[in-house]
Each structure stands twice: as structure tokens, then as C-alpha cells.
């Protein structure tokens, strides 16, 4: 049995969507990272203290990209990551870009204190993070203008990650509704029963306003 540790609005949404789309049996356990007791208890499961993490067969696996790749391997019928070598590498490339760039730009815009204790520099870090995050969102909007899904004609793990970035944009008060193709993609995602179940379970307002 797989247990997924998630939190809203954490990046765990991407792994959560993969698991729900995979059809695998799993239990979703919410960890309130803002609650010191829950965060401390969770560190006994994942010493890094980061969400997402899964446990299975006595082992803990963290890092979104690794969790998604693992779930994709366990459920090949769900085609969450392509198997043709270049298509697979392109999908992993997108996931790595998400973790290394989108996530970090958003963190800069949201949690500048994670980058320096010098408070006078926080606004500068926030501003650079916001500018770069917006460019990242625009890149996805351009990509989605000519294709339904992030990797092309088929839904993959990359789409759950992209939805997380759209929702962070909404949370960060970026004008995401102006990104027409990305917004249409968000609606296509919400129309998927598995995605809707996850958004409802996490309490994401995207389903309430859809
Ligand atoms: N590189 C990790 C980052 C995970 C991460 O930082 N998750 C955030 C939530 S979005 C978290 O757990 N933050 C709590 C903390 O850093 O203490 C991944 O891609 O899974």
C-alpha cells in the first residue's frame, strides 16, 4: 500500500494527481506543515520534512520528480510518462524544469526569507522571483496555444505539475486568467474525473470557482 503525504497548496498536487490517475490503491494523508507538531512528526517519516513524500514497503521516497517517475513505472497502463526514449526524456526534462525553476522562482516570490536573512533584500528577491515566475507561466501559455497537453496530444505527469503552477499563479495574484490557453488547459484538467477528485480532496478553490 502506498501512502502519500500531501498538503494544500504544496507542490504535492502533482504527485497526488499522478497517483489518482494511475488507478493504484493509495492513501492520501494531509500533513499541515504550518502545525509544528505535525511537521515534527512528519520529519520522522521524511527527515527532509518536505512534501510530497510517499511510503511503501517500509521505504520513504521524496522529491516530486522521483515520486512521479516511480508511480508512472508502477502503472504503465496509465501512460503517465512516455516509454519511447526521447519522449520519456522530454517529459522528465519538463518535470526537472518544474522542480528546479518554476518552483524556485515561486519560492523566491513567496518566501524570500528562505534566500537571505537580510530583510532589506527581501523585496528585491521577491520581485525577481515574480518576474521570472510570470515568464515561466507565459512560456506554458505559448506551449498550450498549439497543443492540449504539456507534452503534446496526450495527458502525462507533466500536466499535474503545470496545474500546480497555474494555481500558484492564482494564489500569488498573477493575472493568470489573461493566459487564455493556460486557462483553457486548467479547465480541461478540472474536467478529468481523477483530477477533480484530487482538487476536491485537497480543498483547492479551482474546483469551487470552475
Ligand atoms: N525539491 C522538492 C521540494 C519539495 C518542497 O519544498 N515542498 C514544499 C511544499 S511545496 C515543502 O515541503 N516545504 C516545507 C519545507 O521546506 O520545510 C520536490 O520537488 O519535491
Descriptive account of the structure:
- The protein is α+β, with helices and mostly antiparallel strands and about 210 residues long.
- The chain folds into two domains: about 1-80, Glutaredoxin, CATH 3.40.30; about 85-190, Up-down Bundle (Glutathione S-transferase Yfyf (Class Pi), Chain A, domain 2).
- The chain has helices at about 10-20, 35-45, 65-75, 85-110, 120-145, 155-170, 180-190, 195-200, 205-210, and strands at about 1-5, 25-30, 55, 60.
- A four-stranded mixed β-sheet has the order 2-1-3-4, covered by helices on one side.
- The radius of gyration is 17 Å and the shape is globular.
User: What is the averaged pLDDT score?
Assistant: 97
Radius of gyration: 17 Å
Shape: globular
Examine the secondary-structure arrangement and name the CATH architecture of the largest domain.
Up-down Bundle
- Helix content class: 55-70%
- CATH class of the largest domain reads Mainly Alpha
Number of helices: 9
Strand order of the largest sheet: 2-1-3-4
Tally of strands = 4
Distance between the termini: 33 Å
Low-confidence stretches: none
Number of separate domains: 2
The name of the CATH topology of the largest domain is Glutathione S-transferase Yfyf (Class Pi), Chain A, domain 2
- Bound ligands, named by name, code or SMILES: glutathione
What is the H-and-E element order? EHEHEEHHHHHHH
